[in-house]
Design a protein that fits this description.
Blueprint: E1 3-9, E2 12-18
Antiparallel strand pairs: 1-2
Length: 60
């Protein structure tokens, strides 16, 4: 059984399927990385461009 998250804001609706069977596990990738005492860097991946509040989304 899957769970679905529904979010409604300003007449816009978003649905997100929450299903553990469809997760993208990272176990097959080398994710060891390096430790740093002074700085922490991270990378974020999205399948669409990053959207910031206040910007107009032109996606369909």
């Amino acid at each position: 059984m899957s769970a679905v998250l529904k979010y409604l804001k300003s007449n816009q609706v978003t649905y997100l399927v929450l299903d553990a069977n469809q997760s993208n596990t990272l176990t097959e990738f080398d994710i060891a990385g390096e430790r740093s005492e002074t700085e922490t860097e991270f990378y974020a991946y999205t399948d669409r461009d990053v959207w910031r509040p206040g910007e107009v989304s032109m996606s369909i």
